[in-house]
Amino acid sequence: MSGPAILKLSSYAARLLAEHDYRHSISIRWTSMTDAEVQECLAATIIREPHKQLTTFCPLQLPQRLWVYLLEKSLGERSRNRWSELNNKDVNRLVNIVTNDVYQTSGRGTFKDEFVTCGGVSLNGVNAQTLESKKVKNLYFAGEVLDIDGITGGFNFQAAWTTAFTVAKAICEAEKQA
Fold first, then answer.
1. Cα(111)–Cα(95) distance, integer angstroms
2. DSSP string for 3-39
3. What whole-number distance in Å separates Cα of residue 88 and Cα of residue 126?
């Protein structure tokens, strides 16, 4: 899974993901409808559209390719059936996958990189104006070594450039005063 929503969510969960060695489950609710509303919608479709094929008619306003994927995942070969051929067990499987589709993850993305590193030198441990360590004189921190992160889209680059500029300026000022 990828895209802006996944990247933003992963930035919020970066610490938790790292703590669990990037192994976790993700549960997706593909609709804002409740389980009961989805159940009712599917039952009504069986009555109203009995001769239509499941794969060609989605009553839940999901993208067509996603609908077909969810049908195949939950019903297998039965996903090619008509609405009238669904039994209660099939409907329950569809309700479950639309309202609680679970995926297991293990490891990081394809490139084994993160968009945010999460963690690092606490901002409480540095002077906010110069980014100099409060514990060790003339030790400065910049970029992702600091415990700062942001959503993707250039924010982390900007943080790296800005902190590097701040450190360079502070070092120049310190040299002038020495």
1. 35
2. SHHHHHHHHHTHHHHHHTTTEEEEEE--SSS-HHHHH
3. 62
